[in-house]
């Protein structure tokens, strides 16, 4: 039985949208001669206009599978995430950086809560710009801002392309992990690229039979990406490379004339990412709050992600002339930036509001949840070196990148 059979079945309209996306991806495979690089598959599955997971109608963000959602992110989990970021951003805005630019703003919660918190800090940015690939999410962001921060919503605008020159703060939470990756497999000491082919329907498998399968093909001489030269040993391994995320970082770096970029995501430095014991890679899919490794389950109805290689991001940023100002676990960063003080400002005797807030903050900080796997990297240009970033005051791991 296909493993999708043990997960909740999508409603009929979602299944037909997935079938339309499969037809579109199938055509792309045919046009490419029968084999498509995994990065192209992932790009179509997530972003094909109107049909991809992020560009289509899936619920995506939410607390549990009952609302049809697939995962929860830090800004959705607790407003203390945004409020703590605001404490880090306020002194930067005070250095004359009047704008914030957010990539991939999800439901708009981070934008709304950051603006509200910066207002409280007395450091409202003149302008809050959002770059969002998905029209569906852009509409949700507008609705969230109108509901949660209507008086601040006029400061928010949506950009279709990156500005050539930007002075301000850039922020992106869980954006890098949503960028397409290439897959590579080393088998018997030989590297192959792992791509996607059509799979003939198996009459017995019913509606949950996947339309696609993995297929490995040899690499041309000299075509092995540089990051994989560092994979020690000759044991069998499957792993990813992140050209798209690194290209994105270079583009952000050349845009950022003065300011700081904060990227928050799950991942590791290269030495840990390509550690000989991590033999299965980090590709992961999220469907109705189940994490599983099958990217061919319900294309367009589930998220597909890979962890971030933060060394690659740091090197791409350095190529563009940025400085790595800090790299720390999410727990360290949030604690350094004052999340505990913010929580302690609540009345602990008011258990109805204090306990849920404390539980959510605990999830952001706990090693077993988001505290250690998630990292924060900050990349800067032209900032006052005498004012180091508070979020990295203790536990900075930039040396590991
Ligand atoms: C996992 S969601 C995170 C959403 C939100 N930041 C949050 O934390 O809830 C990933 C988001 O990244 C966006 N995204 C991916 N690549 C992007 C790019 N190159 N530019 C802007 N947004 C991008 C997706 O459209 C989606 O909104």
TrEMBL record:
Domain of life: Bacteria
Transmembrane regions: none
Official protein name in the record: SAM-dependent methyltransferase
Lineage of the species this protein comes from: Bacteria, Pseudomonadati, Pseudomonadota, Betaproteobacteria, Burkholderiales
Pfam families, per the entry: Methyltransf_28
Protein's UniProt keywords contain Transferase: yes
GO BP of this protein: methylation
Keywords, sorted A to Z: Methyltransferase, Transferase
Molecular function in Gene Ontology: methyltransferase activity
Catalytic EC class: transferase
Keyword Methyltransferase: yes
Organism for this UniProt entry: Cupriavidus basilensis
PANTHER family attached to this UniProt entry: PROTEIN ARGININE METHYLTRANSFERASE NDUFAF7, MITOCHONDRIAL
EC number: 2.1.1.-
